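Box 3.1 A note on notation
Throughout this textbook, protein chains are presented in two layers. The first layer is the amino acid sequence; the second is a token string describing backbone geometry. Keep the layers aligned when reading.
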Amino acid sequence: MKTQAKDKAETAVSDCLYPFKPTLGKGYPSSEKFEVVLNIEGVGVGIRARTAFDSRVCIAKVSGYALSERRLHTLQLSSRTHLYDCWFSGLFSHSCKPNVFLDLHYLEVWALCEIHPGELLTMDYAMTEDVLFRQFACQCAELNCRGWITGHDELLNAEGQAFMAQWRERKRP
């Protein structure tokens, strides 16, 4: 026997950003609260808030696949385990003054300040990674910007050393 409720359930489109939503519970990122920012090739390059979030609240749970190696879109859970999440938290932009904190023990995202609709979610990659998949020049333009971003246990590579020499020259009064 078919009911209207069953018909709606069968045709409902999941609004969860993760493709494996049926196995997840509540609290995971939805397209109602977050938007995946795409580049011109249609590849995800950021996450934008669609709703406002208060400071110091959990705004989402995260998920993904546990890997033994570092890759683009992974977050370090331990020295030998990385969470691959190319759907949500692996797309957060970097900022030297981030607006979210990833609690990788409980797999939660917390707002560090008020987040307004339209704002990109940003984290400090050095807070979660011993060594980055790839070092890069920072684009955050914050007053406390470090210029070249590495993991917290990592030295500047040759490209980073050259960049920082030029960056320091530009910063001199």
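The mean pLDDT is 89. The longest helix spans residues 158-171.
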